[in-house]
Amino acid sequence: MPRSLLFVELGAKPARELRRGFAAEGFKIDTATGALHAQNMAAMRCYDAKVLFGDGVVVLRGCLERRGRDITDASVPLIAVTNMTDDEEVQVLEAGASLCVSPATSFAEMLLRLRALIEIADGFPRQYRRRDLGIDPVARRASRGG
To answer: Of the candidates 31, 105, 30, 98, which has an alpha carbon nearest to the alpha carbon of residue 60?
Structure first.
Protein backbone atom coordinates (compact mmCIF):
# COMPACT_ATOMS: atom_id res chain seq x y z
CA MET A 1 0.00 0.00 0.00
CA PRO A 2 1.50 3.36 -0.98
CA ARG A 3 2.35 5.92 1.66
CA SER A 4 0.37 9.16 1.57
CA LEU A 5 1.53 12.70 2.22
CA LEU A 6 -0.42 15.90 2.73
CA PHE A 7 1.39 18.94 1.39
CA VAL A 8 0.04 22.08 3.09
CA GLU A 9 0.75 25.34 1.27
CA LEU A 10 0.80 28.27 3.69
CA GLY A 11 1.90 30.98 1.31
CA ALA A 12 4.72 28.92 -0.18
CA LYS A 13 4.51 26.15 -2.74
CA PRO A 14 6.59 22.97 -2.69
CA ALA A 15 9.29 22.69 -5.30
CA ARG A 16 8.26 20.66 -8.32
CA GLU A 17 11.27 18.45 -7.74
CA LEU A 18 9.96 17.50 -4.28
CA ARG A 19 6.55 16.53 -5.62
CA ARG A 20 8.10 14.54 -8.48
CA GLY A 21 10.65 12.92 -6.19
CA PHE A 22 8.11 11.73 -3.62
CA ALA A 23 5.78 10.50 -6.38
CA ALA A 24 8.66 8.58 -7.96
CA GLU A 25 9.33 6.98 -4.56
CA GLY A 26 5.75 5.70 -4.47
CA PHE A 27 4.12 8.33 -2.25
CA LYS A 28 0.60 9.53 -2.99
CA ILE A 29 0.45 13.30 -2.52
CA ASP A 30 -2.58 15.45 -1.74
CA THR A 31 -2.26 19.23 -1.56
CA ALA A 32 -4.12 21.61 0.72
CA THR A 33 -4.03 25.37 0.25
CA GLY A 34 -4.24 26.92 3.69
CA ALA A 35 -4.79 25.70 7.22
CA LEU A 36 -8.57 25.24 7.02
CA HIS A 37 -8.31 23.17 3.85
CA ALA A 38 -5.59 21.05 5.52
CA GLN A 39 -7.80 20.58 8.59
CA ASN A 40 -10.69 19.36 6.42
CA MET A 41 -8.51 17.00 4.40
CA ALA A 42 -6.90 15.56 7.54
CA ALA A 43 -10.39 14.93 8.96
CA MET A 44 -11.41 12.98 5.84
CA ARG A 45 -8.29 10.92 5.33
CA CYS A 46 -5.35 9.45 7.24
CA TYR A 47 -1.90 10.53 6.10
CA ASP A 48 1.46 8.99 6.86
CA ALA A 49 2.97 12.48 7.17
CA LYS A 50 2.12 16.14 6.65
CA VAL A 51 4.54 18.62 5.11
CA LEU A 52 3.89 22.34 5.71
CA PHE A 53 5.40 24.84 3.30
CA GLY A 54 5.33 28.30 4.84
CA ASP A 55 6.36 31.82 4.02
CA GLY A 56 8.04 32.48 7.31
CA VAL A 57 7.86 31.13 10.80
CA VAL A 58 5.04 33.38 11.96
CA VAL A 59 2.67 31.79 9.43
CA LEU A 60 3.73 28.25 10.36
CA ARG A 61 3.59 28.81 14.11
CA GLY A 62 0.26 30.63 13.84
CA CYS A 63 -1.24 27.80 11.80
CA LEU A 64 -0.06 25.15 14.24
CA GLU A 65 -1.23 27.06 17.30
CA ARG A 66 -4.67 27.96 15.85
CA ARG A 67 -5.46 24.59 14.34
CA GLY A 68 -3.85 22.63 17.19
CA ARG A 69 -4.56 18.92 17.16
CA ASP A 70 -6.58 19.17 13.93
CA ILE A 71 -3.33 19.38 11.99
CA THR A 72 -0.79 18.17 14.55
CA ASP A 73 -1.33 14.58 15.60
CA ALA A 74 1.33 12.96 17.76
CA SER A 75 1.18 9.78 15.68
CA VAL A 76 1.63 11.55 12.30
CA PRO A 77 4.96 13.25 11.54
CA LEU A 78 4.70 16.92 10.57
CA ILE A 79 7.58 18.55 8.71
CA ALA A 80 7.84 22.34 8.45
CA VAL A 81 9.69 23.61 5.38
CA THR A 82 10.81 27.24 5.57
CA ASN A 83 13.89 29.37 6.18
CA MET A 84 14.27 30.06 9.90
CA THR A 85 16.74 30.87 12.62
CA ASP A 86 17.47 28.44 15.46
CA ASP A 87 15.13 30.35 17.81
CA GLU A 88 12.34 30.30 15.24
CA GLU A 89 12.87 26.57 14.69
CA VAL A 90 12.42 25.96 18.43
CA GLN A 91 9.14 27.91 18.34
CA VAL A 92 7.81 25.84 15.42
CA LEU A 93 8.85 22.58 17.11
CA GLU A 94 7.15 23.68 20.33
CA ALA A 95 3.99 24.43 18.32
CA GLY A 96 3.84 20.81 17.15
CA ALA A 97 6.17 20.18 14.23
CA SER A 98 8.24 16.97 14.26
CA LEU A 99 11.03 18.37 12.11
CA CYS A 100 12.03 21.68 10.52
CA VAL A 101 13.99 21.82 7.28
CA SER A 102 15.14 24.52 4.92
CA PRO A 103 13.68 24.69 1.39
CA ALA A 104 17.28 24.21 0.23
CA THR A 105 17.44 20.74 1.83
CA SER A 106 18.17 18.09 -0.78
CA PHE A 107 15.40 15.70 -1.75
CA ALA A 108 17.54 12.72 -0.72
CA GLU A 109 17.99 14.09 2.81
CA MET A 110 14.31 14.99 3.15
CA LEU A 111 13.29 11.52 1.94
CA LEU A 112 15.56 9.80 4.47
CA ARG A 113 14.34 11.97 7.34
CA LEU A 114 10.69 11.48 6.36
CA ARG A 115 11.05 7.70 6.10
CA ALA A 116 12.72 7.60 9.52
CA LEU A 117 9.91 9.64 11.08
CA ILE A 118 7.26 7.42 9.48
CA GLU A 119 8.99 4.28 10.78
CA ILE A 120 9.01 5.74 14.28
CA ALA A 121 5.34 6.70 13.98
CA ASP A 122 4.45 3.19 12.75
CA GLY A 123 5.86 1.82 16.00
CA PHE A 124 3.93 4.34 18.09
CA PRO A 125 0.91 2.53 19.58
CA ARG A 126 -2.42 4.13 18.79
CA GLN A 127 -4.01 2.73 21.95
CA TYR A 128 -3.03 0.67 24.97
CA ARG A 129 -5.38 -1.83 26.56
CA ARG A 130 -4.89 -3.67 29.83
CA ARG A 131 -7.91 -5.66 31.03
CA ASP A 132 -10.73 -3.08 31.28
CA LEU A 133 -8.42 -0.03 31.21
CA GLY A 134 -7.90 1.71 27.87
CA ILE A 135 -5.46 4.54 27.14
CA ASP A 136 -5.40 6.57 23.92
CA PRO A 137 -2.17 8.66 23.98
CA VAL A 138 -3.02 10.53 20.77
CA ALA A 139 -6.42 11.75 21.98
CA ARG A 140 -5.14 11.97 25.56
CA ARG A 141 -8.06 9.93 26.88
CA ALA A 142 -8.44 7.03 29.28
CA SER A 143 -11.41 4.75 29.79
CA ARG A 144 -12.34 1.96 32.13
CA GLY A 145 -14.74 -0.80 31.11
CA GLY A 146 -15.61 0.98 27.87
So the answer is: 98
Query: Could you tell me if 63 and 32 are in contact, meaning their C-beta atoms sit under 8 angstroms apart?
Result: no
Pairing of strands 99-101, 78-81: parallel
CA distances from 24 to 28, 110, 111 (A): 10, 14, 11
Per-residue pLDDT band for 137 (boundaries 50, 70, 90) equals: low
Which string of b and e fits 48-64 if b means at least 16 CB within 10 Å? bbbbbbbeebebbbebb
| Pick from 123, 114, 33, 42: nearest CA to 80 | 114
The predicted structure's pLDDT at residue 1: 64
For residue 113, which of 143, 139, 77, 86 has the smallest C-alpha distance? 77
Beta bridge partners of 5: 29, 49
The answer for residues whose C-beta is within 8 angstroms of residue 30's C-beta and 6 or more apart is: 4, 5, 6, 7, 41, 45, 47
* Per-residue three-class SS string for 120-133: HHHCCCCCEEECCE
